[in-house]
Design a protein that fits this description.
The protein has helices at 49-54, 60-75, 77-88, 110-122, and strands at 5-9, 21-24, 40-41, 94-98, 126-128. The protein is globular and about 40 Å long. By secondary structure, it is of the alpha/beta class.
Length: 145
């Protein structure tokens, strides 16, 4: 079976229409209602609370990236591919999900790092599911008094 992998955020409306197996890669499931059922949550691929703290502040992205890649290396490509294959099941593909809206300028996410790592270590192509991003507010701005 060939792995067909996408990434996205939990709140992307296209996830439910994609036909892909939705798989979380976060420590905690969403507190908001999803329009689809998560088939699995691969905790090994989620950043640790310590990594999330590293991501803050000066050189945060660099420190986080180093720690996250080290975590993936420690788990190993064989085990990660095995987990992804099991999560995909007989479906045509899977979509790994987390919270970040990477359509917003300057936003980045561990799912992007995971996609790069899978490309480099397993030769897998990981594609971001199309996402229009957050909808702009339709409320009219009110002037400050």
């Amino acid at each position: 079976m060939t792995l067909r992998i996408f990434t996205s955020r939990y709140s992307n409306p296209r996830v439910s229409k994609s036909g892909l197996t939705p798989v979380g890669i976060t420590r905690y499931p969403p507190r908001f209602r999803l329009a689809y059922e998560l088939k699995a949550n691969l905790y090994d691929l989620a950043p640790t609370p310590e990594m999330l703290q590293m991501a803050k502040g000066e050189n945060g992205r660099e420190r986080f990236t180093t720690a996250y890649r080290a975590r993936l290396d420690a788990i190993g490509v064989h085990d990660i591919v095995q987990q992804l294959t099991a999560a995909q099941g007989a479906n045509a593909g899977l979509v790994m999900l987390c919270y970040e809206d990477v359509t917003t300028t300057g936003h980045w996410c561990h799912r992007q790092l995971l996609g790069e790592w899978l490309r480099a270590h397993a030769g897998l192509v990981v594609v971001e599911l199309p996402d229009l991003g957050k909808k702009p507010s339709r409320r009219k701005a009110t002037p400050d008094p």
